[in-house]
Amino acid sequence: MAENDTTTPGAVTRRRFLRDTSLAGCAVAAGAQVLLADGTLVIPASQGFLLVDLKKCQGCSTCMMACALAHTGTASYTLARIQIQQDSFARFPDDVFMATCRQCADAPCVRVCPTGANAPDPAFGNVRRIDPAKCIGCRSCVARCPYTPARLQWDHARQVALKCDLCADTPHLGSRGGPGGVQTCVRVCPEKAISFTATMPDQKDLHSYEVNLRDRAWAKLGMSVK
Amino acid sequence: MALYGYAGKILRLDLTARKATAVDTARYRRWGGGHGMASALFWDFCRDKTIKDGRDPANVCCVMPGPFSGTIVPSGGGRCEVTGVGVGMDPISWYTRSAIGGRFSAMLKYAGWDGVVIEGRASEPVWVEIQNSEVRFRDATRLWGLDTWATQDEIWRLQRRRRGTRTGWHDLNDRAEWGAADQGRTTQLSAIMTIGAAGEHQTAHAALIHDAGNGAGQGGFGAVWGSKNLKAISVIGTGSIEVADPAALLAARLVVKEKYTASWERPDFWTWSRLGNLPRPIIQSTPPTPDRRPQSCQGCNNGCRLRFSVGYGNESACQETSWYAPFIGRLVKDRIKAGEINLKAADIVQRYGFNSFVYQTGLHWLEHLVEEGALGPGRRIHSDLPWSQLGTLEFAEALTRALSTRTDIGADLADGWVQAARKWGREEDLHTGALQFSYWGWPEHGYDPRAELEWGYGSIMGDRDTNTHCFNAIFTSVSAAVAYGLPLRLEAGELVSLVAKKLAPYAKDRPEVLDFSDANMYSEAVAQLVRWQQHYCRFWKNSTILCDLKWPDFYNTNVPSLEGATGSPDGGEQVFWKAVTGEDLSFEGGVERGRQIWNLDNAIWTLQGRHRDIVHFAPYLYEHEYEHGELFPFYMWPCRDGDGKWAYTDLMGRKLDRAKFEQWKTTFYTLEGWDTASGWPTRRTLEAMDMKFVADALAAAGRLGREGA
Amino acid sequence: MTTRLAPPPHELAARILAPVPFAHRMKVGRLVPPVGLTAGDVRSLEELLRHLEPDQRSLPGVGFERTAAWVEDAVGDRDLAVSVRGIAAEAPSYVEGCRRLLELIAERLGQAREVVGGGPTREGGSL
């Protein structure tokens, strides 16, 4: 899958296609989304993605609490851009799910945002970010996310939507975040069950963000690395 | 001003009136949280502190997170303290404590509560539903009789929550009764703490259970809830907790991970550290499958439990996975099959809400009685249980059911095992050691008081089997290394110096406090160690709250200096305290705060009837030696020889000397500033700690210690 | 391991395979951090064998001299007791001693079974 996986218009003339894509190409190269003449939004690809090992997570939720802490200065599940779900009674590996934002190539949450609050940020590798100052709390993005659970959060106290920005906006992290920087969840995870990649996973594969991070040490601890 | 690290209010549940009110947390701020706050709340709200049985309606049970709950403080985010007068102890059921892990404390904080104070008694079974600031008393008639797992399932069903993962966000505004304010939404299941049959029948061995395998066992708090007709508390919260210095908190957490914890890249599986291991499950049998994960409480640095693909054994760990093992081995040759029975036996005690710790030594005693012909069908102690099947899963369930429902021998054991021994005319077993219930009617833990002094002394000077594992890793690590013939990671002299560096203020740089040799076992030094442990634990461990199995971290072979995280300037307890609460409290200051809490607890015990005359171990500990090779070939511990040279030495082969232990008690009371004749706190000691209100109450009850006695 | 013991006579072989009375049981333990030392007992060599089997989570607790005395007095196998004492004297570590003891007991049980006719293994004592 190409890194700059932009959405192209549907039925268009060759001439119009060349005109529009050349414009879009310039804009995408500069890192801004472009609204084409036919109303199609061209979204530049994110330069970073989180990958998770669903069999490695110990369910401590440290990533959740740390995520909220780095972004907002408070400890919280609700304000965490990564959500860890657990069912204490379920069988491994279905007892844990790590719900991370996929930074979709064709990000429906970006596309649906009526104010442009949710947009790729060229300053941080086009990671899809929500500008709380522009968010009007319509929750369209939350509803539009096609994954379960939705990878956008609802801050009911401030009445704004939240999403993973790969730690671009983390005043309490103490390091630069975003693609190329530090991701709090990756760094804080005691199990090393979360990793970062600049390579876009297959957008058509539901499981392409799930990876095997279990290594020899894991095997030495007696657990399966399969 | 923000009360950093706290939600700001404590929930007070009056079960008699079915009324919920809020108490301002700021009023109790000096006690820290967790145990300290709970003791202060008990002091204020328990109107009759002379009660001697936790099932008395006057009893007040507190379920208390601490400031670290719901934060990323390593191995601190998911612990929860439970306190109140216990059940089934001997001769008096003391005001006591237990702790439980999992998600409950974090969720309670996120719901906006720093704790729950449970008072009175409901006329009919109830469960309590907490959703953020909203609290509802629910009819539990249909839950009564369900086991702990089924209860949680049913509550989730009532809340219209779907079990499993990959489920969607749950809108907490889905029920009109919660009001107009936006309750938010969550991906999480509510956290539920509940009792099973053992609690419903108010038995001494009743635990509180949360999720599959978190339990507050010792103390019999399941019976306390049962006596109050309280089946369960469910909590879901979508709020957040403000911390004073988020950047400092994150930085310190990363220091613990990256400096004090073994790395995945160059793993040291045998590191000598309590905090800094890779996830090391502590189930006590061979895991049934490699298809499993480590599983932990919230915020843990390294999970100690497991979840499996096989459908049993999830989250059970430690003692509940060892209680049945010695008996399974009699009948089952195949180790995998034995492991399966073992873990399924753990599931049984979880479901019944049964504190399996009484089985640790108690089941051996019951077997002894059967073999002697004293117990069984038609025998003096009548029992219809199928004793010939001891070791089978069917027997494990039959026994646990009987003991949970007051049937068969459970009718007598339900109110305490030592009491049952007396009723059965078997008091002699406490002399021979056939019944190894060492202190206050609680079973010996595995750290025999004749060898490991701080465990035994701390238990008898406190309120229960102390269950504070600050120092036992010395015994287990050294003994295991010696057993394997492996090089010792730390020589005895080096180890005690490293530990002593952390023992401020009473024992700082006094390695002799760790010398458990015959010559030093009744010394002032050992008394200082016991004081330090109880004071440290009362605040740093049980009030902030930190995991008993991870903290303190005295020495740490992951670090070039070998110094552990405890008290350190980059990853110490006080670093996390300041980051979370904003208070610049020194490590020693925290220990001092623990001393105040310890004194408050002793004041409660004094009002309940504590006097030094009843502070005794079970007689077998004075009358019989802990024999060499009895349970293991040696019990290694650092001791000094006649020349003052440190070496790891076997502590087996001795018993306690009653007269010398009495002298040691006097030393201990003197150091605490208590009346040496009674063990009661004195006015001078209490007032020096700004606890005049306690001295006044003791004086009014005629139980204030005499000065200079 | 090749045993240096002569096969036991029939009567001793039967005793080797049988549980001893409860009163003659041998106390054993297990080092299971962080629970500590947990107690147990064995009433037959078969049970002792199982107690000594390697376990990823814990260490079996036996005293070699106590074991030798129990083998001699309760089971009545003097030759085996001598061998147990030999292990105690020669093993470079306790864990290696346990391993050697396990092999020795297994060998002795095998000898006993052959002597009594290869009958089914006793499943240990029952109450």
Brief account:
The complex is a heterotrimer of chains A (226), B (709) and C (127). Chain A has 226 residues and is an alpha+beta fold. Chain A contains six helices and eleven strands.
Q: What this model shows, in words?
A:
The complex is a heterotrimer of chains A (226), B (709) and C (127). Chain A is α+β, with helices and mostly antiparallel strands. Chain A folds into 2 domains: 1-44, no CATH class; 47-220, Alpha-Beta Plaits, CATH 3.30.70. Helix content of chain A is 21%, strand content 17%. Chain A contains 6 helices and 11 strands. Chain A has helices spanning 14-30, 62-72, 108-112, 140-144, 184-188, 216-220; strands at residues 34-35, 41-42, 49-52, 74-76, 83-86, 96-99, 118-121, 127-130, 152-155, 160-163, 194-197. In chain B, helix 8 packs parallel to helix 10, helix 17 crosses helix 19 (587-608) and helix 17 crosses helix 21 (658-672). The longest helix of chain B has 22 residues, at 587-608. The longest helix of chain C is centred in the C-terminal third of the chain and has 23 residues, at 94-116. With 127 residues, chain C is of the alpha+beta class. Chain C has helices at 10-17, 45-52, 64-75, 78-90, 94-116; strands at residues 26-32, 36-42, 59-61. Residues 120-127 of chain C have low confidence and may be disordered. Chain C is globular, with a radius of gyration of 14 Å. The interface between A and B is large, with 59 and 75 residues. Strand 4 of chain A pairs antiparallel with strand 15 of chain B, so a sheet runs across the interface.
